[in-house]
From TrEMBL:
Record domain E2F/DP family winged-helix DNA-binding: where: 111-180, 249-334
InterPro entries to which the protein is assigned, alphabetical: E2F, E2F_WHTH_DNA-bd_dom, WH-like_DNA-bd_sf, WH_DNA-bd_sf
Any GO BP: positive regulation of macromolecule metabolic process
Subcellular location as annotated: Nucleus
Transmembrane annotation, as ranges: none
Biased composition (Polar residues): 81-90, 475-490, 858-879
Main location, first listed in the record: nucleus
UniProt-annotated stretches for the region Disordered: 1-90, 341-360, 382-408, 475-494, 560-606, 621-661, 843-879
Protein name as annotated: Transcription factor E2F7
Top-level taxon: Eukaryota
Biased composition range(s): Basic and acidic residues: 65-77, 390-408, 639-661
DNA sequence: CGATCCCGCCACATT
DNA sequence: AATGTGGCGGGATCG
């Protein structure tokens, strides 16, 4: 496109020409581009960066003109358009600013020329990415609008998104302060954490939600949901409690939406988020409804946001190929890891961020975030120091922090997710053709590997021995039924449970696997410094994300050193509760308010607790068996084969390029496996957090089974109502530690297998998968057991991406290719075999649970679930 | 024809 | 009430 523009535009119509350059950048290299200010450069006058003064000067000068121009613009436009290429006239106006530009500036602005993305680039070009702390640059909306020749409205669109990332902050009426990217990493980190929490928990929550749904379904969801969430999450800016609330609800949209959108990326293992999914997730209220119109509007907004993010070089557009076809999606190409805040402000140090969660301290329902933040910092404004001084103060009038709301929010979110899932499911069921995976993180088309349909058979589902686990069942019965009875039926099988196994598997058609957690959790933990230990802890925590949260909240980092211990007890307790747990699920709501669970003080956490319990239950059962169950199914050999092909080949693969890359990436990121519902499985969704396993496992094994559970399988029916969720968080922690380094993910499993719960097993699989993938190109990182890997799959991924960056990460090529050839793509494994399975197991060996393996073996006979397959594959590498 | 998303009306918030 | 903000979605343009 850009190219086009150039050819055309450049020559003729200069107006945009400046932009033109930009456009190029943008188009061509979104990743990096943005920062550098291309645009103005030419201009004689100002420099974009330094020139505050100049700029101002210019602006002031220009603005009037510009303004006129805008006004006139209408007039012009027509003209321009008509003339398009030729009209020099327009130049005049433009000229003002860009003398250089030329004459033709205006000519016809094609739509692209006027695109928000381009506009954003121009906007960004005006300011230094990393302004000196001292100078704060203030941005006058009018001025900028006039300079850029657009209506103010458009500037708002840009600024709102930038504000959500803290690149700017509103100082006053028409004034914004430019902060640049100094805090970006921090912000992202915060968002990631928040995202994990929120979404992660949500995921976990889902159970509760289900319950809630029952009640709320009808009513509440909507009510509560709305704003509060936003704030909590978003408010980043106002550290204080004040929260933006003041801001009025309105802020909800773009800003919040933007943050949420970013969170999805950060939480996503694949780093790819499809628009529709994002839209659905972001539509809080109506879960099910999802009016079309609303959805449509949401998507529109997402495009706006995506344009800005693209200009920032944080995401790029890609297409995900799913069963149905390609879907527009965006891939995160920004930083994935946020080690300390990388950049941070110049001045400030630490800072905390503003994330959303913080405020809620009290309730902190989710929020772990809060906890994390605490650590980092003070509540104060995160940026506090920002260059701009007062800038950030926001309007906040009063904060309302509705904690409760948050909970509600969660609920609402959960609901949404559930709704989304449900819808999809329904759709799928109804329209087989349609079936789309709900998965949040669908596998990117690119990565072929991503999606795989699992044969139902695959999971024989096993429930954990813990009958109690039932949660699903129970829950399902309760909550689910109402909403999704039909699906439920599948459950009929109630899923077969396997004793021991922690999981529930329902035979349903499609499976989705989502991996939520990011390592991020770890990050939070990081505080603790205890590096390793911390990690472990994290892991443990991770295992029980929510729980962890709570815990954290309660005691912060428990003992890093002996985190486990703490946890254990907790775990036990939990377990105790667990018994109830299943029920608890039903109970859920309370959790919110009442932390009854022993520990958690924070009501907010409660949910987590539940989860934990839940997990525990699952876990407790028997790991080993679980393993069997899960792995066992060697479903379709075919699939396996496919996998194998894909994977294995991955390295070898011809597609290597793209495919391999992705695979590689994925492996790293084992976070989620998304399985599309293919034919059979359409009904089910699975979420796995790749990460989880490791840490969780260990813990779990020892005592907290719950933790271990990485995956939850829910019957489609249940899903219908809710999406499955696994707390991703869990995984993450582990990863770091990991020993297993070679693959955190893998490790997870293994360890898990050994001990812990079966669940882990699953997880492991996922993890495994990734590894396997890794083989490919970039992959290496993992295998080697690089620490990085451990840290977080995600990170790893990111790393990979980074490293690979261009190639892999970018993967454009790859992506494209894949897209094109989805079918051909590797996804399908073919040749996988039991042998591998074995191997896989072996890998885990490190973990050492023979048992699990054995089981596997036994299972092998069965079909292996796709998951397993993956595992297998991955596993191969490990050894 | 579906994907994008510009444009600007208009409601709500702030001054 | 004026002006700032920004939700929202029609409908144009792109691919």
């Amino acid at each position: 496109e850009n190219i086009f523009d150039r050819s055309r535009m450049a020559p003729k119509t200069p107006i945009k020409n400046e932009p033109v350059d930009l456009s190029k950048q943008k188009g061509c290299t979104p990743e990096r581009n943005p920062i550098t200010p291309v645009k103005l450069v030419d201009r004689p006058q100002p420099d974009p960066w330094t020139p505050t003064a100049n700029l101002k000067m210019l602006v002031s000068a220009a603005s009037p003109d510009m303004r006129d121009r805008e006004k006139k613009k209408e007039l012009f436009r027509p003209i321009e358009n008509s003339e398009q290429s030729d009209t020099p006239e327009s130049l005049q106006y433009d000229m003002v600013d860009d003398s250089t530009v030329d004459e033709f500036e205006k000519q016809r602005p094609s739509r692209k020329q006027k695109s928000l993305g381009l506009l954003c680039q121009k906007f960004l070009a005006r300011y230094p990415s990393y302004p000196l702390s001292t100078e704060k640059t203030t941005i006058s909306l009018d001025e900028v609008a006039s300079i850029l020749g657009v209506e103010r409205r458009r500037i708002y669109d840009i600024v709102n998104v930038l504000e959500s990332l803290h690149l700017v902050s509103r100082v006053a009426k028409n004034q914004y302060c430019w902060h640049g990217r100094h805090n970006l990493s921090q912000t992202l980190k915060t968002l990631q954490e928040a995202g994990e929490l929120q979404y992660g928990e949500l995921m976990t929550f889902f159970q509760h939600k289900e319950q809630d749904l029952e009640y709320k379904f009808g009513e509440r969801k909507k009510e509560t949901i709305p704003d509060s969430q936003d704030r909590s999450l978003l408010d980043f800016s106002e550290p204080d409690c004040t929260s933006a609330s003041a801001n009025s609800r309105k802020d909800k949209s773009l800003r919040i939406m933007s943050q949420k959108f970013v969170m999805l990326f950060l939480v996503s293992k694949t780093k790819i988020v499809t628009l529709d999914i994002a839209a659905k997730i972001l539509i809080e209220e109506t879960q099910d409804t999802v009016d079309h119109s609303k959805f449509k509007t949401k998507v529109r907004r997402l495009y706006d946001i995506a344009n800005v993010l693209t200009s920032l070089g944080l995401i790029k557009k890609v297409h995900v190929t799913e069963e149905r076809g390609r879907k527009p999606a965006f891939k995160w190409i920004g930083p994935v890891e946020f080690p300390g805040k990388t950049d941070e402000l110049r001045g400030h140090s630490p800072t905390s961020d503003p994330l959303p969660g913080t405020q809620r301290g009290p309730c902190a329902p989710y929020q772990i975030c809060a906890a994390g933040k605490q650590r980092f910092t003070r509540h104060a404004s995160f940026n506090g120091a920002q260059p701009c001084e007062g800038t950030r103060r926001k309007v906040s009038s009063e904060p309302n922090s509705p904690r409760e709301e948050r909970q509600d929010e969660y609920c609402s979110k959960m609901i949404n997710l559930a709704a989304v899932c449900r819808q999809k499911i329904e759709e799928d069921t109804r329209n087989p053709s349609i079936t789309s995976p709900l998965s949040l993180l669908p596998v990117p088309g690119d990565s072929d590997f991503c999606v795989n349909p699992l044969p139902q058979a695959v999971f024989p589902v096993v429930q954990a021995d813990v009958p109690s686990l039932s949660l699903p069942n129970g829950i399902s019965s309760q909550a689910l039924h109402p909403s999704t009875p039909a699906a439920s039926k599948t459950e009929n099988g109630k899923p077969t449970l396997l004793p021991n196994q922690p999981f529930l598997c329902f035979p349903s058609s499609s499976l989705f696997m989502l991996c939520g957690g990011l390592q991020e959790n770890n990050l939070r933990e990081t505080l603790p410094t205890a590096g390793d230990v911390g990690n472990r802890r994290a892991e443990a925590q991770a295992a029980v994300p929510s729980a962890a949260c709570q815990k954290r909240g309660s005691h912060k980092c428990a003992s890093l050193s002996a985190p486990v211990d703490d946890e254990e007890p907790a775990a036990k307790k939990q377990t105790m509760e667990q018994s109830a747990v299943p029920l608890s699920l039903a109970v859920p709501k309370k959790p919110f308010e009442s932390p009854k669970a022993e520990s958690t003080p924070g009501s907010g956490c409660t949910s987590a607790e539940h989860l934990e319990a839940f997990h525990l239950d699952l876990a407790s059962p028997a790991a080993p068996e679980a393993a069997d169950s899960e792995p066992t199914k060697p479903l379709d050999s075919q699939e396996q084969e496919k996998w194998s092909q894909n994977k294995d080949p991955g390295e070898p693969s011809p597609g290597r390029e793209h495919i391999s890359k992705e695979n590689a990436n994925q492996p790293f990121l084992p976070q989620y496996l998304y399985v599309q519902p293919t034919a059979g499985l359409s009904s089910f969704n699975f979420l796995f957090s790749a990460n989880q396993a490791p840490g969780a496992i260990s813990l779990a094994a020892s005592q907290l089974p719950s933790l271990s559970i990485p995956c939850v399988m829910v019957p489609s029916a249940a899903l219908a109502s809710f999406p499955l969720v696994c707390s991703p968080t869990i995984t993450s922690p582990l990863s770091p530690v990991p020993d297993g380094s070679f693959s955190a993910a893998t490790s997870m499993n293994f360890s898990m297998s050994g001990l812990a719960s079966t669940t882990p097993v699953f997880i492991g699989t996922t993890a495994v998968v990734t590894p396997k993938v890794s083989p490919t190109p970039s992959v290496d990182p993992q295998q080697p057991a690089h620490p990085t890997l451990h840290l977080s799959p995600v990170l790893a991924r990111s790393c990979g991406a980074v490293k690979l960056d261009s190639p892999v990460c970018m993967g454009h090529p790859v992506t494209l290719l894949k897209l094109q050839q989805p079918s051909s793509t590797p996804l399908t494994p073919k040749s996988i075999r039991p042998a591998r399975h074995e191997a896989f197991f072996k890998t885990p060996g490190s973990l050492g649970d023979p048992v699990a393996w054995k089981k596997n073996e036994g299972n092998q006979t069965r079909n292996v679930s796709s998951v397993q397959r993956r595992l297998e594959i991955s596993s191969t590498s490990p050894d």
